[in-house]
Amino acid sequence: MFEETADTITIGLSLAPAFAPDFRIALDYYDIQIDDAVSSLANEDIIKFCYASSMEFGDNNEFCRDIKRDEEGQIYEVNQRVINTDEIRTKGYDIALEYVYDASDYGSFKVKADWTHVIEYSITSTGPDGQYEDLYEGYLNEDIFEDKGAISLTWYKNNWRVRWSTKYKGAVEASRSRYEDWQAAIAKNNERCTAGETSCIAAPEPLWQGALPSVTTHGLTVNYSMELGDNRTLSVYGGVNNLFDEKGPFIVGGSGNFDSAYGSGVGRFAFIGAKYQF
User: Fold this and answer.
1) CB of 68 within 8 A of CB of 75?
2) What is the pLDDT of residues 197-239, one digit of tens each?
3) How many structural domains does the chain have?
4) 32, 50, 59, 109: which could join 64 in a potential S-S bond, CB 3.0 to 4.6 Å?
5) Entry pTM
6) What distance in Å separates the CA atoms of residue 264 and residue 255, rounded to the nearest whole number?
7) Using alpha carbons only, what angle is made at residue 11 by residues 5 and 16, rounded to the nearest 5 degrees?
8) How far is CA 50 from CA 78, 136, 147, 205, 249, in A?
9) What would the mean pLDDT of 158-163 be, rounded to a whole number?
10) What DSSP letter does each residue of 184-216 carry, written as one string?
11) Alpha carbon of 213 to those of 100, 219, 250: distances in Å?
12) What does the alpha-carbon distance between residue 63 and residue 1 come to, in Å, rounded to a whole number?
């Protein structure tokens, strides 16, 4: 093992235009490249290097020794090892907006919005057959959504605060390894079709449990604060998270059959509380 080195590019722009003094916008772009990054091989790569690489299968193959099977021949463990991979690279951009509107006797309103887009998240490594690249953005099992966003509208008047919030997660593929295997199978089928082989499947079905839709959730909170004197404050609050009971897509093998990225199937829930400061 040896140390990582990184090249980082970040560009930020903040605007508060004079013609709209209560409006602000921030734009940030990042491009981070980490050479010799400390990481670990994916389970899929370890299995591939054992069974489908130029290295001979068997006990002399170090990757085969990392795979443990039970008495029925099923894999129950893949031993991981920490390595210096060739490169980890990620790049994307963030956008943040804020606008405050004073409605005089009706209080004031604040709108805040944030958007994140991941252009790339990749790991480049060297295996038995040379250098290869794994792309991780846009896969649920890697927990890297290409697009995520949030927006909120808050009303303030005297001691009251009411907030409506909305969160968005973009569409993703469920599993990187399953999607790549499916793509490889489709490519082989296309070759058979081009060659006119009878084994060609003219209209193959899409990958089952592959593409997952975007998910949007909403929440509502209410807060009332009271000044009690002597620097004492009492706040009473309550609300409902996931107001419309959006549990996200059905995920085979997920917690409660729903993935933790979507709240593990918890759904709508209400809360109430108080905060006393002195």
Assistant:
1) yes
2) 999 998 898 888 889 999 999 999 999 999 888 889 999 999 9
3) 1
4) 50
5) 0.82
6) 5
7) 150
8) 11, 22, 35, 30, 34
9) 95
10) HHHHHHHHHHHTT-TT--SSPPPPTT-EE--EE
11) 33, 20, 10
12) 18
Distance of alpha carbon 176 from alpha carbon 172, whole angstroms = 10
pLDDT in tens, 60-109: 888 898 999 888 888 889 888 778 888 999 999 999 999 999 999 999 99
Task: Name the DSSP class of 144.
Answer: B
214, 95, 213: which is closest to 151 by C-alpha? 95
Percentage of the chain with pLDDT > 90?
55
Residue 11's alpha-carbon distances to 28, 31, 53, 94, 96, in angstroms, are 6, 9, 41, 11, 14
CA distances from 190 to 57, 111, 177, 211 (A): 30, 50, 20, 21
Rounded to an integer, the average pLDDT of 180-186 is 90
Residues 8-31: tens digit of each pLDDT: 999 999 999 888 889 999 999 999
Q: What are phi and psi of 193, to 5 degrees?
A: -65, -40
Write out the residue range of the structural domain in which residue 151 sits: 5-277
Q: How far apart are CA 45 and CA 126, in angstroms?
A: 11
The encoded tokens of residue 8 equal 């980082």
Angstrom distances, CA of residue 185 to CA of 178, 180, 192, 194, 204? 10, 9, 11, 14, 10
Rounded distance, CA 32 to CA 34, Å?
7
- Cβ count near 172 (within 10 Å): 28
